[in-house]
Design a protein that fits this description.
The structure holds two protein chains of two kinds. Helix content of chain A is 35%, strand content 25%. Chain A is of the alpha/beta class. In chain A, the strands form two sheets. Chain A has an eight-stranded mixed beta sheet with strand order 6-7-8-3-9-10-12-11, sandwiched between helices. Chain B is mainly alpha-helical. In chain B, helix 5 (85-120) crosses helix 8 and helix 11 crosses helix 13 (269-297). Chain B starts with a helix and ends with a helix. The chains are: A alpha/beta, B mainly alpha. At the A-B interface, helix 2, helix 4 and helix 6 of A face helix 9, helix 10 and helix 14 of B.
């Protein structure tokens, strides 16, 4: 069962300098209980996609031009403000990148957690406190920490608290937007393992967003590769790992020292992502692609189905 | 607590410096013997009074006596009315205090309402109107606005009394104008702070936790942006005190302001000295109160030293 289906989403950001084509015909589906990864370099539209899924796009000036985002069959883009407030936190929640910035510095952790719990569940203060302590314990957050203010705690502790806050409302879908990027390297792995365990325990779907291929392949069952506002390849972890089809995916794996062997030097991808100010007529990766033909530059590639899970948007694969 | 202790020490040091400045300013403003004795006084009489007042003593000793007298409530005697300065100020101070307090309350209410509205609907017509009115109050001298208000509300429409004290209606124009004058600075400050706060992650996360918008604004955004307004309140109170002198004079409000105006005109130095001393201490106490309020709002300040 799919809990979330994004269908042909096209979104634009209106800036002073003109229109930015942020999300260009993005489609993917997330199943209940699965961890779905979105990988791509910065500025490729990962975070903008997650904001759209949460119905937050209007607030940041992102306009959905066409397409739909179906959460359990309901279009998030058509949610009323009231419906959206129910949806946010209770059905779909997010863990932001920097836990140091995610909590209000003027209130205790406890205050903000109880505020969240009582927003979505009709419980007394005492019951809310019980839920809070239980959830905090499952993320190994000690009870005493709950009386602290955010500035008194470390980034790792705060990110666990944010996790507890999100999980306390038992959402069906959690988006984790680079949740470990702002943490110390030493606790990154610890946090990821915790997140993975809780995702299984609480039976939620998790959309995991990262630019780090190692982290993504450790966490996710299925992975989508995003480039310049388009999803260029989707597949299971093994599909992408062992049989990457899109030249960008291949280059991405090459650029990362994924097999653990120490290489003399990392491969890099020549060139830079395209300017999102102009609508791209062809494949967005064409300019950097070593296999690109004239057809790649002039026309959009079709989505090619390799197997049930594995799809790729590349003319070269289609021609084979 | 260490924060408050630090602030108390700071306040005491400031008061100490104020007494030195007041003392030196008066000392350097000329020989008081000239104003105390008639021109026909003999050299012996002048000598006698100088010794009696201790003016022949070293400066430090004179300062010590000034502080000692001030602490025991003796701020000297007025040249013009021959009454004790403290008594003269004490009977006027409640009026000034009332005016200042009501002005502060008005300023805070106006700031919170209009600063928030302008921030939430930034770059809309409402925001521009609020900013334009704030700019008008900031740019125009308070006596000018006061005269306009008197003409319109007091003389043309006859809805408010133009001068004096006694009823709450008498307070409306002076306290309202004074409040608006300081609110103009605070409103633009709150607006820009809140615009920045509204863009921060914890507001975004608050909304994405599903919190209703009123809670996001009133609880989280307002509190976070208001603390920086409080942090700047010392500057605001300085303009409150100087503004009150102008406002009191225009509206014949029987407070310290009008007394100081009269004393300056008649070169009644002991009274001026007393007023400057007491108003300075009042300002220092007010900013101390705001610092304490700030510490109540912001746990990071409480813990830091």
């Amino acid at each position: 069962m799919n809990i979330l289906e994004v269908k042909n989403l096209v979104s634009q950001l209106n800036t002073e300098d003109g229109v930015l084509h942020i999300i260009n015909d993005v489609s993917f589906a997330v199943k209940e209980d699965e961890c779905f990864g979105i990988i791509g370099e910065s500025g490729c539209g990962k975070t903008m996609t997650s904001m759209s899924i949460l119905g937050y796009s209007d607030r940041i000036g992102l306009k959905a031009v066409s397409g739909e985002i179906l959460f359990k069959g309901e279009d998030v883009l058509k949610f009323s403000k009231k419906r959206l407030r129910e949806y946010n936190g209770k059905e779909a929640a997010i863990i932001l990148q920097d836990p140091m910035q995610a909590l209000d510095p003027l209130f205790t952790i406890k205050d903000q957690m109880i505020e969240t719990i009582r927003r979505h569940q009709k419980v007394s203060k005492k019951e809310a406190e019980k839920i809070m302590i239980e959830t905090a314990e499952s993320l190994s957050v000690a009870k005493e920490k709950l009386n602290c203010y955010p500035h008194q705690l470390s980034g790792g502790m705060l990110q666990r608290i944010v996790g507890a806050m999100v999980l306390s409302c038992r959402p069906k879908l959690i988006i984790a937007d680079e949740p470990t990027t702002a943490l110390d390297v030493t606790i990154q792995l610890q946090y990821l393992k915790l997140l993975k365990r809780l995702q299984k325990e609480y039976h939620t779907a998790l959309i995991f967003i990262s630019h780090d291929i190692k982290v993504i392949s450790m966490m996710c069952d299925r992975i989508a590769v995003m480039y310049a506002g388009e999803i260029v390849e989707t597949g299971t972890r093994d599909d992408l790992f062992y049989h990457p089809k899109h030249p960008y995916t291949q280059a991405l794996f090459k650029a990362t020292n994924i097999d653990g062997n120490i290489r003399e030097r990392y491969e890099t991808i020549d060139g830079a992502p395209p300017n999102l100010k102009e609508e791209i007529a062809g494949c967005p990766f064409a300019e950097r692609c070593q296999y690109a033909t004239d057809a790649c530059i002039s026309g959009k590639p079709e989505v090619v189905k390799i197997n049930d899970e594995h799809t790729v948007k590349c003319r070269r694969i289609a021609d084979e | 607590m260490r924060y408050l202790a630090k602030k108390i020490i700071e306040a005491l040091i400031t008061i100490f410096i104020v007494t030195i400045i007041v003392f030196l300013a008066i000392h350097s403003s000329g020989d008081p013997i000239n104003s105390l004795l008639p021109d026909s006084a003999t050299e012996a009489q002048r000598q006698e009074l100088t010794e009696k007042l201790g003016l022949d003593r070293p400066l430090v000793e004179q300062y010590g006596r000034f502080v000692k007298d001030a602490l025991s409530g003796d701020l000297g005697t007025s040249y013009t009315s021959k009454r004790p300065v403290l008594e003269m100020i004490a009977e006027k101070l409640p009026y000034t205090f009332e005016l200042a307090l009501v002005a502060i309350i008005i300023a805070f209410i106006v700031t919170i309402i209009f600063g928030s509205l302008a921030a939430i609907w930034k770059n809309t017509i409402l925001d521009r109107i609020i900013l334009a009115i704030a700019a008008f109050f900031k740019a125009s001298p308070i006596f000018f606005i006061a005269i306009l208000a008197v003409q319109l509300l007091g003389v043309k429409l006859r809805v408010l009394p133009v001068a004096g004290a006694g009823t709450p209606l008498h307070l409306v124009m002076p306290a309202g104008l004074l409040g608006l004058a300081i609110a103009s600075d605070m409103t633009t400050l709150l607006r820009s702070n809140m615009i920045a706060v509204l863009e921060s992650d914890f507001i975004k996360f608050g909304r994405l936790r599903g919190l209703p918008e009123y809670k996001v604004i009133l609880k989280h955004a307002l509190r976070n942006s208001f603390s920086s307004v409080l942090a700047l309140s010392s500057f605001i109170f300085a303009s409150l005190i100087s503004g009150s002198i102008v406002v009191e004079t225009i509206f014949a409000w029987p407070g310290v302001g009008i007394l100081s105006y009269n004393s300056v005109i008649s070169r009644d130095f002991p009274v001026v000295q007393g007023i400057v001393l007491i108003l300075s201490i009042l300002t220092i106490l007010l900013s101390f109160t705001m610092d304490a309020l700030l510490a109540m709002l912001d746990p990071r300040i409480r813990k830091s030293v």
